[in-house]
Amino acid sequence: MNLRTKKTKANEDQKKPLLPGSKWIKWKLINQHEDLRSLQPQTELYSPEAVEKFLEQYAKVFIKPDKSYGGRQVIRLQREIGQIAALLGRKKRLFKHLYDFDQWLEPIRKGRLFIVQEGVDLVTLKDHPVDLRTILLPNENNGWEVTGMFAKVAKKGKIVTNVKAGGKVISVLDYLGQAGYTTEDQKVMMEQIENLSLKITCIFSNIYRNKKYGLDLGIDKNRNVKLIEVNSKPSLRILRKVDDNMYLRSIRLRRQSKNRQ
Fold it and tell me: Which domains does the chain have, with CATH numbers?
C-alpha cells in the first residue's frame, strides 16, 4: 500500500461514525448475520411483558442498562417457589408479582433504556461466574490482531466479573485447564475464540472507525463460544496482570494506530 492509498483509507475511516455505547444497537448489528445469531443471548428492550416472556423461556434472565460499563446495575432474575428473585450486587430481593419488581426497578432506571437478556449457562470455576475478554487492535499490516486475551472470574457471591466489582483476571489457558480441557482441546478453543473475535471485529470496523475493541465472550456447558458484548473502550493496562508481552504488544500497536490517524 503506497502513501496515497494509506491517506485515502485514513480519510475514509474518519468519515465513519464512532461505535455507540448502546448494547441494543450492537446486538442488532450482529443479529443481522444469520451465521452469528446463535452466538448471542436472546435480547429485547426492557418491558414487563418481555421479562415475563423471558422468565417463561429461560432459567435465569439479566436486566441491564443499555449504556453502562463495569457491570453496573446488572440484575439477575430467577423464579423461586412462586416468587421472582432479583440479585443486584450481593443483595437478593424477592417479589411476589412482576409488577412489584417493575415498580422497584423504576427509580433505578430513571427513564433510561434497559435491556432484557437470556442468561446463558456458562462454564464456571467453583461456582464463580467466568467470562473472557479479547482485545483487538489494528497491526502494521492494516489488519486486526488479537493482542490480548484473558478470563475474568467473579468475586464470590457476585454475578458480574469486572475487576472494578472485585473480579480477578487469569489466563484463558489457566481457566480452560481448571475447567477440565485437555491440552489439545485448549488449543482448539483458543483458535475458535481468536477467529470469532476477528470476524466480529471486522463486522464492526466496516461501519465504525474505532481502532480498539474489547469483546466479552463466554463458553457454555456445551463448549460453544458465546458473544456477550462488544466494547469500544477496553483497558489495555489490565493486560499487565496477565502477560507482559501482551501488554507491550498492545501498547506498541495502539501508539502506531494513533500516529496513523
Answer: 43-118 (no CATH), 123-260 (3.30.470.20)
